[in-house]
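Dissemination and training. As part of the outreach component of the grant, students in the summer workshop were shown how a complex can be specified as a set of sequence lines and then modelled as a single object. The example used during the hands-on session is reproduced here so that future cohorts can follow it. Participants entered these lines:
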Amino acid sequence: MKAEVIDQRQVLALLAITFVSEGLLFAPSVTFLFARQDAWMSNIIALVGGLFSAWCWVSLSSRFPGKTLFQVFLIIFGRYFGLIMAAYYIWGWFNFACDTLREITGLLVAGFMPRTPIVAFIIIFALLSTYIAYNKLENLGRVSLMFFPVILGVIVILFILSTGEMNLANLTPVFENGFIPVFKGSLTLMFWFSQVIGISVLLPFLDKSRGVLWTCSKSIIISFFIFELIAFGIIAILGPSLSSRTLAPILYGARMIHLAGFLERTEILIMVVWIASSTIKIALYQWIVSLGAAQLIGMKDYRSLVIPFGILLICFSFLLHPDMTHLYNFMGYVWSGPYGLGYLFIGPFIFLLWAMITGKGAKS
Amino acid sequence: MKKLIICLLLFALLFTGGCWDSKEPGSIAHVLGCGVDKAPDGNVILTLELAIPSGISPLSGGAVGSGAGTSTFYVVSEKGRTIPEAQSKISERVSRTIFWGHNLVIIFGKTAAEQGLRETLNFLYRNFEPREASWVLISKGEAREIFEKGRPVLEKTNSQAIDKLMSANGIGVEFVLFLRDMYRSGSNPAAPSITLVKKDMVAGAQSRALQEPVPGIEGLAVFKSDRLKGFLNPEETYGFHFLRGVYTKPKRLVFITPGIEEKKEISLQALRWTTRVDPVQEENNLKIFIEINLLGNLLAQKGHEDIYDMKILKKIEENASGEVEKLVRAAVVKAQGEYGTDIFGFGETYRNKYRKMWPKAGPRWDEEFAGAKIYLSVKVTVRNTGLETARPEYEKGKTGG
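and obtained this result:
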């Protein structure tokens, strides 16, 4: 299993892409819905939450060097309960992958190609992510390192280009409705930052495990700045009322750019970024799911599971969500509500406490 | 392995056809402008100005008025309960797929605007094709007339003419800004009003365009929430621009100010200005202090005053300040009295300053605004005076005055 090795920069890129990709899709609109013009403050709260979550997962994983999360479950919870927990988390990752797949393809259909059957996109994405996942983690790491600067650059450039359309009055009054809406808005993002859980599977594959927490924190902080750019930019352009009712706010922000009559239609860049980030995210999660399932049932090579999971991905992205409304509500209120937060945010804390109390794993 | 890859690539070919959403240039009808009217029976009348590519291509040349036989646009209208219904009816007699991606202007008719726009304009935002950066205009009559009767001279279609008109004058209001103001508490939307102008204009040797009107801007349409309240005349529109310079960025704002000599006015061009609004709530009455700092260019003088004399220039600046104040006050009085709607966005400033009172004041802000006392302080600075200093001396004697 030690054949695959990735380095810290690749982990940083992989994790950051998993956060940012959601920021380009539904997530900001849910935050805006609660926090309205104070969404940027929600992001700060979410940053704190995300860093806490990173600390939990990293300290849990580093108590069991060389073990992925699924093996850790088997150790701390014993054979049967551990199996259930591991299966539950595998299901969760699989669910993320399905949701992301459905989200990106749904938006492509809603926005750019309304008459194309969504299944065409889903199959193409699933083929692509299966291909990437099948070619092991190292390639995935390299792909992410290649696309991460592109994704970052596009968002920053679009932000700079759209400054002409911004009206800072949209961001006022600050703190109009008090703290509660701001906190509610932060839950969504906190959940997406909690997907730093990926580190607990990636950790055994790292070339050196020193400074992992800092790498995770860096990826969260970079994504935080991206989320801030999105929150500031979109609200300043569209105003809180419109942006909170827009399925993919960043798309509308990009559409407002028209400089000097020649620099127009930058939304196509958004499409590039969407596809790149979502594919990498889906591929990573497909890889994690295959690896976890293989470890759970004691298979030597996880690669034979990648393709079956790819097929399941196609089926489940249909079965889980009948339409966009269902998907939006699931993303906005179920994942970001008690279900998702308990899963990724409170869960690791309890596991860590449990491991400490029972004294399992090496003390670092 | 190689064979497998080749098989996969061949399989991928199936998806590259783009059969579902292919949009070939030859099979789409480009919407350049759309007009929305309300029929007396409550139905929506959608008017689309579609481009005729063969007429527009740069090779064919010539504007519409030249009468060369190639028309560049064609206008279709259809009635429907909603915009999409009207559009689908239109597509039954337009031979190509209607494509909104290049839409430049959205014109709402007067009756449609008076009855409230919220129910009609959703289609334009919800869907991906119509652009949020299109200009919004309000027609003084029916929107369809602008497209049907307007004959642009320099541009090839009415929509392009209006689009250029907006960017050249810098007074356009983008659709998204319009929407934002409609939904935001503390401000109301305002959009330029468009009408057909049939003034002295002769185009080409055949002088055909003399009889045919061109689309032109005339004043500003004032809204209360999503309902049209009325129009400001051109002078009051200037006042509006001075108060809300961020909203639109007018480029050719020229105003006349009295000079030192009697009836010898001076033309000034407003270059940049900043507006500071400070609402003060006192017990039951609201005072709004407005401070405008304006930077202007002197374009022409009628009289012979020596503007390079600092004192005289100072006097001119004072006159100009008074003039700007007059324009601004005219706009405010009209908005406060006749229309009772805060199109200047003063409410936003109030909302920031009196956050605790806003939940109570917000819903009836327009009434609060109508009852507010406005205190204006304008300061005009003449920055440039062109390439002439004072005017040359009139050596023939001063009998002419």
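The two ends of chain A are 23 Å apart (CA to CA). Students were then asked to discuss how this feature might be tested experimentally.
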